[in-house]
Design a protein that fits this description.
The complex is a heterodimer of chains A (292) and B (159).
Chain A lengths: L4 E3 L4 H8 L5 E4 L5 H6 L10 E4 L9 E4 L2 E5 L4 H6 L1 H6 L1 H7 L5 H6 L2 H6 L8 H6 L3 E6 L2 E6 L4 E3 L2 E2 L6 E8 L5 E8 L10 E10 L2 E10 L6 E2 L1 H7 L6 H15 L10 H25 L2
Parallel strand pairs in A: 1-3, 2-3
Antiparallel strand pairs in A: 4-5, 5-10, 6-7, 6-10, 8-9, 11-12, 12-13, 13-14
Chain B lengths: L3 E7 L2 E7 L5 H8 L18 E4 L2 E4 L12 E3 L12 H9 L8 H14 L5 H7 L10 H15 L4
Parallel strand pairs in B: 1-5
Antiparallel strand pairs in B: 1-2, 3-4, 3-5
Helix pairs in contact in B: 2-5
The chains are: A alpha+beta (292), B alpha+beta (159).
Chain lengths: 292, 159
């Protein structure tokens, strides 16, 4: 790897000061994306002259419940998120997404903030955060701002972060009672792979009617996306396989805009969206009934 | 760029070493500390041959920057034996023949050790999951899984 200046601040304030050098300074957390990109000279920005490692900023690494919201520090690792009892009980789709990233080694190093800031369309934690309506908390030289996760992704590798800003935390509000949620992806291998398609679903049922529906897709558009056509096909409808089939069809034909690439053809991705979405709707409905 | 002095505890021994910030922990242990057990397979975190345990977490050391290891406790394959007695995991790999060319084995054993530290009675699926980040290109997995089962049995005391 070509060399760089290295800093390891211990506080967010110090990290922000070091990042004021502009585009030539980059933050790194677990390194499982950025270090690989630097080794391969494949960063989407000029090779960093300064690396600001966030691994010692303890105020970024936490998972805690405050009021009726869950706060997850951007420095929480995938292992932290996947193992957290609150995440598993109340936001299972997020635990499922965090729990399939790479290998154990990857999950021990990679952070949820890094997964989002790397902004791969296939990021496994993104679809669940979209269905839970998470907010991002961003800290920068001008202070702190909150942005909906849906507005955070701007394209492959691109986020709404301005130069010098850091993603500090995620806030997830409590989900309504009788909500069931789930994330699954398709990969040729069970582990150490990148999603060909990822789908997250959250359904809220009132008796057998769908009161609220959230569907999000990964790896079928330039960013992780909400599947609004699928959601419209679900809202207010009976929670039946016919409804789920119509919604899955809408997700595949209207919401997904996949490309052909090395992992799959666009046509196969649409097929996967349809199959996975319809299966997950059945499973989310079953979870919703368990949560009554 | 200026080199940096870092101190880390490696296999129980405190060491100081001067590193380029762009060195990885793997390069540091192999080139500066002369511990060549951990191997570089892919260099991109996919194969697990460089696996080490850092502050109790299994990591791919090819992706950890050397200064990120400053102040941390690092265990490599060389650190598993105690006064010349092999770790039960190492011994089990020898007895079951859980190796072919051997290149992946230092990482494989570290992943197995990490798994058994968390769960000394893993199911076959849990063994596969625990070693999923470690590739054996000889495809010698069957005997590797047998080695982990044997080690688990001995660690539980049911030799």
């Amino acid at each position: 790897m070509r060399t760089f200046e290295y800093h390891a601040p211990q506080t967010i304030d110090d990290a922000l000061r070091l990042l004021q050098a502009g585009e030539s300074a980059r933050p790194v957390a677990g390194g499982t994306d950025l270090v690989v990109q630097m080794k391969e000279r494949a960063t989407r920005f000029p090779y960093p002259e300064t690396i600001v490692s966030l691994d010692r900023v303890s105020e970024l690494r936490f998972i805690e419940t405050g009021g009726d919201a869950l706060r997850i520090g951007a420095g929480a690792t995938m292992t932290d998120v996947a193992a957290d009892s609150t995440v598993r009980a109340h936001y299972p789709a997020l635990a499922e997404g965090a729990g399939v990233v790479g290998s154990l080694q990857t999950m021990n190093m990679a952070t949820i903030g890094g997964n989002l800031c790397n902004a791969a369309p296939s990021a496994d934690t993104a679809p669940s955060l979209l269905v839970y309506g998470a907010d991002t908390v961003i800290i920068g030289p001008k202070g702190r701002r909150t942005l909906a996760i849906a507005d955070f992704f701007r394209g492959p590798g691109l986020t709404a972060l301005e130069p010098g800003e850091l993603l500090a935390e995620l806030r997830l509000s409590a989900q309504p009672a009788s909500t069931g949620s789930i994330y699954q992806r398709n990969t040729p291998r069970k582990q150490m792979d990148i999603a060909v398609v990822g789908v997250a679903v959250a359904l809220t049922l009132a008796s057998d009617t769908i009161e609220r529906a959230r569907v999000a897709l990964g790896a079928v558009a330039p960013t992780p996306v909400r599947a609004t056509a699928a959601e419209a096909a679900l809202m207010g409808q009976p929670a039946t396989e016919e409804t789920f089939a119509r919604a899955a069809e809408a997700a595949a034909t209207e919401d997904a805009s996949p490309i052909d690439d090395v992992r799959a053809s666009a046509a196969f991705r649409r097929h996967l969206v349809k199959v996975i979405t319809s299966r997950l709707l059945v499973q989310a409905a079953a979870r919703a009934k368990d949560n009554r | 760029m200026p080199k940096q002095l870092i101190s880390l505890t490696i296999n129980g021994t405190p060491r100081e070493v001067t590193v380029e910030p762009s060195w990885t922990l793997l390069e540091t242990t192999r080139e500066a500390l002369n511990l060549t057990g951990p191997k570089e397979g892919c260099g991109t975190g996919d194969c697990g041959a460089c696996s080490m345990i850092v502050d109790g977490r299994l990591v791919t050391s090819c992706l950890m920057l050397a200064p990120q290891a400053n102040g941390r406790r690092v265990t490599t394959i060389e650190g598993l034996q105690t006064n010349g007695t092999l770790d039960p995991v190492q011994q089990a790999f020898i007895e079951t023949g859980g190796l072919q060319c051997g290149f992946c084995i230092p990482g494989m054993i570290m992943a197995a050790r990490d798994l058994l530290d968390r769960n000394d009675n893993p199911s076959p699926k849990e063994i596969r999951d625990g070693l999923a980040g470690n590739l054996c290109r000889c495809t010698g997995y069957t005997k590797i899984y047998e080695a982990v089962e044997l080690a688990a049995q001995r660690i539980r005391g049911g030799d």
